[in-house]
Amino acid sequence: PAIHTLMELNIPVVFVSNTCAIESEKAKQLSAMLGITIDPEQVVLAQTPMRTLVEYHNKHVLIS
Fold it and tell me: What superkingdom heads the lineage (predicted)?
């Protein structure tokens, strides 16, 4: 499969999903399905970008 070729050529690969799982669990699931090793850092889920906003948790912010 193409994913194996990408991995063999050391081409960076990221997996994006709109699921609300945990990155490490999704990485395990994808690894089992595809027969390759996927690190949690290669998985971007629906909530992943929000991790950069932790400092604003429980604070009032204006979003426009």
Answer: Eukaryota
Tens-place pLDDT, residues 9-62: 999 999 999 988 999 999 999 999 999 999 999 999 998 888 888 888 888 887
In a domain, 45, yes or no: yes
The domain total for the chain is 1
SS3 state of residue 2: helix
User: Which pTM value belongs to this model?
Assistant: 0.75
Which residue range is the domain that position 50 belongs to? 2-56
Q: Is residue 63 part of a domain?
A: no
